[in-house]
């Protein structure tokens, strides 16, 4: 066990000391002026979604070095089979302006800044706490301030505080399924994108092992974890905390319709998997297929599952993970940048 000032400390104390050190370090970096300033750009009364994500940032503590930040990014990417492949992270964006909508604590913001050769990356989020972590990481990596802009917005409206045709590429990963105004946000993506601009979205995928095997079978039937709740309500309580106000598993058809209505040509690339989904399928897949109480929608999904050449589950020819990925381009625009 580690020693501090000559005394042995347990895991709980060790964790508390580590958190204290990291927070002190984050405040020192912020006070030094090295981190980019977070600009509040959204108006309106805070919604339950704003309040929730300002309390529950995805990261709890600041990184102590650029190498630690980068190692975390690599580890996060490896925890989700097909994640970087389906999300096309981080391809060449030389000279482009990228909007990372819902950037959180800056994972992909940093990824684009380090690996894509983008000239400018705009990080936008409703959480001041998350943006503070993102700015801290920018400072750790010593990224020029001219390449980064951090904006705090609000869930009260879907408006994006950027000029028309000012962005080459939009990344929106894991955000719209928590939003009060997803259709309006999609229209705003179309507005701020330049001709030929593209976008990549991730929304929780209804056609997934998590939704049909883990929630519908394992949790509701086998474990009786959510008595009286629908599958959708149980899903909402199972993803980002039991009190998360909005968390929706979208069917690909529903997302594609929203994207097309917003003026995009859109394709569903499939759902990247979590490592847990592979464990759940191995443990419960056979049982779920035989369960007479499982509703027809869920049984049809389980019966239609196949395996690709890597042994990963697919549904209707697409990867069947929780991370549903959609690739968008402006309707009528030529591919490219």
Protein model, in words:
- This protein is α/β, with parallel strands linked by helices.
- It has 3 domains: 1-32; 34-205 and 250-273 and 321-337, Vaccinia Virus protein VP39 (Rossmann fold, 3-Layer(aba) Sandwich); 209-248 and 275-315, no CATH class.
- It has 12 helices and 13 strands.
- The protein has helices at 11-31, 48-55, 66-78, 83-87, 107-115, 128-140, 182-192, 209-222, 231-239, 252-261, 275-290, 296-304; strands at 3-4, 7-8, 38-40, 97-101, 120-125, 148-152, 167-173, 193-204, 264-272, 306-307, 313-315, 318-319, 323-330.
- It has an 8-stranded mixed sheet with strand order 3-6-5-4-7-8-13-9, sandwiched between helices. The chain has a 3-stranded antiparallel sheet with strand order 10-11-12, with no helix packed on it.
- Helix 8 (209-222) packs across helix 11 (275-290) and helix 8 crosses helix 12 (296-304).
- The longest helix is centred in the first third of the chain and has 21 residues, at 11-31.
- The model is unreliable at 1-14 (pLDDT under 50).
